[in-house]
Amino acid sequence: MSLTYTAGSLVAARGREWVVLPESAPDMLVLRPLGGGEDDIAAVFPAFEEVRPAEFAAPSPADLGDQRSAGLLRTALRIGFRSGAGPFRSLASIAVEPRAYQLVPLLMALRQRTVRLLISDDVGIGKTVEAGLIAKELLAQGEATRLAVLCSPALAEQWQSELREKFGIDAELVLASTVSRLERGLELGQSLFDKHPYTIISTDFIKSTRHREDFVKHCPDLVIVDEAHSCVAADDAANGGTSSAANQLRYELLRRVSANEDRHLLLLTATPHSGKESAFRNLLGLVRPELATLDLESPAGRAKLAEHFVARKRADVREYLTKEDGLADDSLAERTAFPSDRWTKDEPYKLTPAYRALLDDAIAYARDRVAAAGEQGKREARIAWWSVIALLRSMVSSPAAAAQTLKTRSESATARTAQEADALGSPVASDSAENDRLEGMDVAPGAAESEEAGARLLDLSRRAAALVGPAEDAKLKALTRHLKSLIADGYHPIVFCRYIPTAEYLATQLEGKLGKKTKIAAVTGTLSPQQRLERIEQLAAEAAAEEADDPAVRRVLIATDCLSEGVNLQHHFDAVVHYDLAWNPTRHDQREGRVDRYGQKRDQVRVITMYGEDNGIDGKVLEVLFKKHRQIMKDLGISVSVPDETASGVTDAVVEWLLLHGRQGSQESLFDLDGHQESFDRIEREWNSAAEREKTSRSKYAQRAIHPEEVAREVAAVRAALGGAEEVRGFALEALRDLDALVRDPRDGSGDFTAQVGGTPAGLRDALAATLGGRLVEEDREIPFRTTPAIGRGEAALVRTDPAIGAIASYVLDSALDANTPGPRPARRCGVVTTDAVRVRTTLLLVRYRFHLTLPSRTGERQLVAEDARLLAYEGMPSRARWLDDEATTALLGARATANTHEQMVANQIAKDLGGLPDLAAHLTEYGTRLAAELDASHRRVRKANEEIVRGLKVVPQEPADVLGVYVYLPQQSAPAASAPTVSGAEA
Fold first, then answer.
1. Tell me: the pLDDT tens digits for 191-246?
2. Section 52-57 average pLDDT
């Protein structure tokens, strides 16, 4: 009759030891190798193979390690954990160490049966990481089985790489360019949303009727919506609440998706309010229908909203878990290195005489055209208006953009009505903060109103083309000067342009003008989103390769606004130059937000805004829009989006004034113009109102659902169980050096280092070859170990989930457990050290506990086996042990040998502790029971608002615990003993 084994117990089979998993049955055991991962799980049939109970062997007194053995062995063990016993199932398996404040949305999510959150943290705080944490946790717990991310097509690849590299979620891109390939692989009647459990879907693509209906019918149980403000419709048109047709379609889609009360939904946006109350209410209604009608003036209403809404500024999280947050001390304080306030400067330039003459003639043409069209009817007037705006914007952008626009037909020329002309012309000519998409918006607009541009326009086009180069283009000349200054100060700038011809023109003109050590690349809408990211990475890689030999190498990126939203550029660039002044300050915020965000190494990001002092346009836009925008930011500490109606009202007035008075009147204040004072007063009131609403919103809806003390408790537990990034880096460095790798640590502040592993043991080389590539290891090339999880082929990330780090940890652990392993063995299971760090004889134990967890969820109970590694220490002999607290125990890892230890004393001392292990069994069992109770309480605490989820929760410790290491610390004697064989501190 075969034995019955409980989940978590140890068995021996196939020449090794295994842990029994909950999926086992009497006739089939599902086993995981002791210390192994999920990929090593095997099924064993006791009727056909020998399986017997096993006990973890005690350490051998003949196999002694040095003073670092305990720390190395503990880290190697913890790196191998992929499913901790704590309430956060996923944190052990992700490749990012979240900031403490990023755990707040996760804690909020775990208190809800169906997760519905609006995450509105400020730009650059890390909403993608916060959403990824929730998604990974829900998937790990079985609360969700499928995932869809809805985002703009320009951000799809970035979402894909973030989910894959940081969270191990391999999602399929569902875009207009990929759907045909995906659908060819479907079976008859199968939906691609069923076949692919994790998808990233373009919000533009999913608007089409066929795909929208398919998605709604087969929608996953977890949906993340990025830039959610662009997916809601405002219904108070009388108060400036107009919405595009695309917004209406996306809003209708999300209403249908959110109608399923059991579907998890995360909405992400840095601008939830945007000055439109009805749009904000509709956004809340997607989270929960009842939130749309809450009385947010009442404490009860705000408390209800706080369960689903988190919105924080940088200032709220720059310093977190401090005494100012209500904690007893700063022991868990976390300081996030956001850049300080941006260094900003407005830099004027003046047109050359030839360019000034061209602009005057263009203004004269525009005046004549608008006047003539006004007599032909409203449709013709609106077509002419948008054509004129396109002409003037291109003219002040660059001679290349002007030449292109002057010979290209206007977008609005095909309109059949005035309304259609506005719909076609406005997105191309303006800089709306709420454009449905940035794709295609950087194409140079047309000014001609027929297929064949008139002779007057063609003449202007030829004159514009003749002005290329710094001799006649003062703007280009000024840019070259500003870039040289930034480069000299060590910066890597991005230059933002409005139009593709301008960006290409600058890239050509600047080549060779910024010094031989400066690398230049251009990224525009002519490239696909994936190609844009590839070009940026190529520029960064080329510059970095040369920068290793010459620190003076710099990189300059010329880009259009296809990169102004969502794309993370902070790792490669640290300055922004606005070459073309946008007609809405919010666009500048978006551009600057690409580099001024978490992860930026510069404390100060530099921003230069170029404007034409005498072109009749830039100065007015800067005076009216930008100065007001900056004042609001200074007063509130946050950016308030400029209502589109406000921005367009100002720019329309500027153009009208320019057509009436020409550039000569440009010194006169717009506010002194007859007929415009009333409209400017209205604009001022609208903007102030929006700012006041935003200010009230930030204070009224500040995150109060989770107290910092609750976060601190969970952060301490996670760090105690898993360690941190510095521990992984230190482990990799020490272990590789001990394993005879050639390690080069530049100590340049980056944390990166390289290693050649040709001299390491064959077992490690084989394991690294499987993850990094055979040729890299065989040819003994340098392997870069980087602190960022975003790595290239042949590189390793210094995170616990990286396969190369896992291979090193497995080798260290396996070689420590097998004394017959040939070659160097960095960690051993025993050690005796004489040190001045202790005053009485002290013993440190490394103990592994296994727990059988029963975790209830919406989809039923899940049975899991999880592991935890703990350090325990006691003073004196095992039979009379005086146990130390956690702080004193951990401090022993830093103890260093200060004297040699007699060989006989080493043997005697370790024998006493190993022989006394039975005397410690009761305490180890009691500790395991206490640890299980703490874990149970932690699970219940995290889910305290969801009684249904915690009902039936169990955490049962599996006995006996495994003693992996025993390390004795002897106090240093004041006088040396008689001469006898000794063991040095480095070998003891």
1. 888 899 999 998 877 877 778 888 999 999 999 999 888 888 766 543 444 456 66
2. 87
C-alpha distances in Å from residue 872, one per residue of 74, 361, 847: 12, 84, 7
Q: What distance in Å separates the CA atoms of residue 412 and residue 86, rounded to the nearest whole number?
A: 60
Residues whose CB is less than 8 angstroms from the CB of residue 782 and which lie 6 or more positions away in sequence, other chains included: 744, 754, 755, 756
pLDDT in tens, 593-610: 889 887 787 888 999 999
In contact, 682 and 646? CB cutoff 8 Å: no
| Separation of alpha carbons 573 and 492, rounded Å | 5
Beta strands in 295-395 (DSSP E): 309-310, 319-320, 334-335, 343-349
Angle subtended at Cα 300 by Cα 298 and Cα 305, rounded to the nearest 5 degrees: 95
Task: Write the Ramachandran bin of 567: left for phi over 0, alpha for psi from -120 to 50, otherwise beta.
Answer: beta
The per-residue b/e assignment along 733-762, b for 16 or more CB within 10 angstroms, e otherwise, is: bbbbebbebebeeeeeeebbbbbbbeebbe
Is residue 632 a contact partner of residue 582, using CB atoms and an 8 Å limit? no
The C-alpha atoms of residue 461 and residue 459 are separated, in whole angstroms, by 5
Q: Residue 749 carries which DSSP code? A: S
- CA distances for 680 relative to 446, 653, 672, 687, 719, angstroms: 30, 9, 10, 10, 55
Q: How far apart are CA 868 and CA 938, in angstroms?
A: 14
DSSP assignment of 386-405 equals HHHHHHHHHHHH-HHHHHHH
Asked if 435 and 486 count as a contact pair (C-beta separation under 8 A), the reply is: no
- Reading the block at residue 690, the tokens are 């929006």
Alpha helices by DSSP H, listed for 434-559, are 455-465, 474-488, 500-510, 529-547
Rounded to 10 degrees, what is the CA torsion of 451, 411, 528, 268? 180
Backbone angles phi, psi at 861, to 5 degrees: -75, 145
- Asked whether the CA dihedral 708, 851, 98, 119 is positive or negative, the reply is negative
How many Å apart are CA 84 and CA 409, to the nearest integer? 63
Dihedral angle sign, alpha carbons of residues 439, 444, 447, 453 = negative
Percentage of the residues of the chain whose pLDDT score is greater than 70: 84
pTM above 0.90, yes or no: no
342 and 577 in contact (C-beta within 8 Å)? no
Between the CA of residue 228 and those of 259, 279, 368, what are the distances in Å? 16, 11, 43
Amino acid identity for residue 359 in this structure = L
Instruction: Provide the 3-class DSSP secondary structure of residue 670.
Output: helix
Q: If we measure between CA atoms, which residue out of 843, 965, 837 comes closest to residue 899?
A: 837
Alpha carbon distance 313, 236 (integer Å): 28
